[in-house]
Amino acid sequence: MSQMSLPTLPDLRTPAAQLIRLVQDGAAPAAPAPGGRRILVVDADVDPADSLVTQLRRYGHEPLAVQCGSQALQAHADADLVLLALELPDLDGLEVCRAIRAVSRVPVVIVTARQSELDCVLGLQAGADDYVTKPYGLRELMARIEAVMRRAHWQPAARRYIRRGRLHIDVNSREVTVDGSGIPLTRKEFDLLCLLASHPDTVIPRKQLLKQVWGDSWSQRTVDTHVSSLRGKLGGSGWIVTVRGVGFKLGAG
Question: What's in the keyword line of the UniProt record (predicted)?
Answer without folding.
Answer: DNA-binding, Phosphoprotein, Transcription, Transcription regulation, Two-component regulatory system
